[in-house]
Design goal:
By secondary structure, the chain is α/β, with parallel strands linked by helices. It is 29% helix and 26% strand. It is built from 10 helices and 18 strands.
Length: 341
């Protein structure tokens, strides 16, 4: 089968012909219909986060159609429309049992530890496979498996609730999903911070207060708009020292900052301000299996609409994918690009 693979760290991906996987006992073979291109893929390519082996097919946002079922598979059959949780977990260790399976002691991530969605087929255990309603496109479903799922987990980790205010730093696929989900959860006010004017227009059309960080100090603007109070929750979705600092400083008393953007960067904290306002800084890692059915339900109801998130599709070709990777690295990419093999 055809695949686009990372052969060497800090180098562009290459087109490759590889063996089509065979589903093992308890697995299904998926014919990939859509695979999202995530900023995390760029981190793996550049060596910011390590991969399990080289060469490897990146891509952890995957949706497709069941092509073949392995032994002892009874819940799926050929032709089923499905989307995949990107964590392959055992279901038995202490983390899986307590519902924190992203820390599974045997866990592996598709597109990072094992071959992922930049290919024509993928074989995975059924534990992380979800049936996809006809009303949700493959393209939208693939992105939901990361952008929307991680944003929802971030909102849960920061204990966001109805009538609270929120600032979202970064309007990529994660940011626009977070915006919609915050609305669903009853946000009183949503501040959307970015430097891309077109993305800010989209955010405003979706009900957020746009703040262009090129034109304003976003912290000063948030304080002005919130009558000096700050926000209850801030989500940092970029992974920059600057925006992490801004996230902390934008918080109200008892405010909670969710750090979501993957980065090796550090940032300084004014401990006096954090202590005197009892601010919290919360790490957000991936998402949970239990959160995905709710997202699929929201999408089926039209409350989570990824039309404005999936803004471009590209073929399964190294040249096209590498172009998107370079744009993501430069923070100049559209909301979300999806590979359609």
């Amino acid at each position: 089968m055809k695949a686009v693979q990372l052969i060497e760290i800090d180098r562009d991906l290459e087109n490759r012909e590889v063996e089509t996987p065979t589903p093992k006992t308890g697995e299904v073979l998926i014919k990939i219909k859509a695979a999202g291109i995530c900023h995390s893929d760029v981190h793996y390519r550049d060596g910011v986060s390590s991969v399990g082996h080289l060469p490897i097919s990146l891509g952890h946002e995957v949706a497709g159609e069941v092509e073949e079922v392995g032994e002892n598979v009874v819940d799926f059959q050929k032709g089923d429309r499905v989307c995949l949780n990107y964590m392959l977990t055992c279901g038995k260790c202490k983390y899986c049992v307590q519902g924190a399976e992203q820390f599974c002691v045997q866990g592996k991530m598709i597109g990072k530890d094992v071959n992922g969605g930049y290919a024509e087929y993928i074989a995975v255990p059924t534990r992380g496979v979800f049936k996809l309603p006809e009303s949700i496109s493959y393209e939208h479903a693939s992105v939901m498996m990361c952008s929307s799922a991680t944003s929802f987990h971030a909102l849960k980790k920061t204990r966001f609730k109805a009538e609270e205010t929120i600032a979202i730093f970064g309007l990529g696929g994660l940011g626009i999903s977070a915006l919609q989900l915050a609305k669903v959860l009853g946000a009183r006010e949503i501040y959307a911070v970015d430097i891309d004017s077109e993305k800010l227009v989209t955010a405003e059309e979706m009900g957020a207060v746009p703040i262009n960080a090129k034109n304003y100090d976003p912290v000063e603007k948030i304080m002005e708009l919130s009558n000096g109070n700050g926000v209850d929750v801030a989500l940092e979705l970029i992974g920059l020292s600057l925006t992490m600092d801004q996230g902390v400083r934008s918080l109200a008393r008892f405010g909670r900052l969710g750090l979501v953007g993957i980065t090796a960067n550090t940032f300084d904290i004014n401990s006096y301000e954090a202590i005197c306002r009892e601010k919290e800084i919360i790490g957000v890692s991936d998402h949970l299996l239990s959160e995905l059915p709710f997202l699929l339900e929201l999408a089926e109801q039209g409350k989570l609409d990824l039309t404005n998130i999936v803004t471009r599709t590209v073929p399964l070709e190294a040249e096209a994918i590498n172009k998107i990777h370079h744009q993501l690295k430069e923070y100049s990419a559209e909301f979300r690009t999806v590979i359609v093999p």
